[in-house]
Amino acid sequence: MKKLLVYLKDFKKESILAPLFKMLEASFELIVPLVVTAIIDVGIAKRDSGYILRMCLVMVALGLIGLLCSVTAQYFAAKAAVGFGSRVRHELFAHIQTFSFSEIDKAGTATLITRLTSDINQAQSGVNMVLRLFLRSPFIVFGAMVMAFTIDFKSAMIFVVTIPLLSLVVFGVMAVSIPMYRKVQERLDRVLGITRENLAGARVIRAFHKEEEEKSRFEESLESLTFMQNRVGRISAVMNPVTYVIINGATVFLLYTGAVQVDTGALTQGEVVALVNYMSQILVELIKLANLIVTITKAVACGNRVQSILEMKSSMPKDNRAANISNPEKNYGGESPVVQFSHVGLTYQGAGGESLSDIDFSVMPGETVGIIGGTGSGKTSLVHLIPRFYDATSGEVRIDGRNVKDYPLEELRQKVGIVMQKAVLFQGTIRENLCWGKEGATEEELYGALEIAQAKEVVDGKEGKLDAFVEQGGKNFSGGQRQRLTIARALVRRPQILILDDSASALDYATDARLRKAIQGMDGNRAVFIVSQRTSSIQHADKIIVLEDGEIAGIGTHSGLLETCGVYREIYESQYKKA
User: Fold this and answer.
1) Same domain, yes or no: 346 and 467
2) Measured between alpha carbons, how far is 146 from 135 in angstroms, rounded to an integer?
3) CB 3.0 to 4.6 Å from 250: which of 55, 162, 232, 311, for a disulfide?
4) Which residue, of 276, 310, 344, is where some domain finishes?
5) 362 within domain boundaries
6) pTM score
7) Is residue 72 part of a domain?
């Protein structure tokens, strides 16, 4: 959490002024009992109504000035806390954007969302409360004790005994309850996890008729959370009664000793009232301080969680400046490969073995490469190495003869257009989604990409056409429509390398065939990678790579692989009856 405080550096003025104005407010609050003393001992004792009125006006003035100081302090504290939260949130989001798929897989999407939202909010709340109360409460407690000594030394000794006793109770209860609050938070995280999982998988749960089992699982977690909350609540509930008993006991003793001293003339009635007021102020501030420390504890825990993400090193820096050198355009009419895998291996973080082993092939400009294999054979892993979603753990992946690790990421990604397995559209319009491929693309470019992707009919069938609204995740489109629109989004860029990662699985055979024919007819000498489970989608490719258990089982054309590669022949015959 300490490292996050650097984001307060632009709010130094607010961070200083907020506690100062709070202490100023506290100073006025400490003066009020003295004014009350003067009213009782002078105004009431001498029946001087004019004096009483003047002192009442002084009290009103002190209250108004205190209110003004409090509002000012709150303004500066809120400005600093909100600015802090905003800076941390922007920094964390920007840092997450630099992560490769490896870091995102390691941290988990749900965890990253929690860090960006509730954890930062909790840290922001902690900063706000510290600026407002962390100096004020101790100042009031010790200030009240000092003011008591200015009134009467013997009576002030009651404060010297009461304050440590109250502190022992308050901080003792906190020492027991804070670890339990952490357990409550852990169990709350578990309940939230089950809730998120159920909402995301509602259709699957209903399809398998598992509603009752999920209800039972949720209720079990909820009961565990409730039990822990009740337990910590009972312990925390002890604090108020015990502190009130101590304060009331001290007040009774103070009134008794004060009455005796009033009889002897050592104290006045107004001074006894002032001492009682100071005792009440101490009680209120200690309770506030206890609640503040609970808030700070939660804020520090959440801040540490945010800091752990900020400290995660990205394996792919956003801009590799050392490698940002001039790169002359290749002559694609020559024989230089546009993509080359040189004995490439890939091992995922925490995996027991390699997911890809000794992948070695090259692709010439204008070639179409089909990639096929069984489930888990490494097809997606292979194509994800080209745009550096993951980095090869051995060997090299080269584009235009240059290692992909030597490219600035922006330059590399501009060369590659990829359509993922899962078609994802963002909330907005069709035009806005397509312009992700090329910012400021003309309508002609957009419709050109839509025609190649066989998605023009999708757009023409929507009211508003390119300006038709797209719901979050593209929920107002069918699976096939989403796939065609995501293909069009990649084609708008006219990339040098086009990767279709099983992106036509929801299309019928006729539409798939028209799509492949249109892609082959595109102008430009681009390399195309088609990842598919269907042999019909890749059988016309210039080169087919067959994967099995992360290794190349065969490379060649459709007819050649049917004769030489048993894995390919088995896949083909499973889809078409053996003649």
Assistant:
1) yes
2) 16
3) 162
4) 310
5) yes
6) 0.70
7) yes
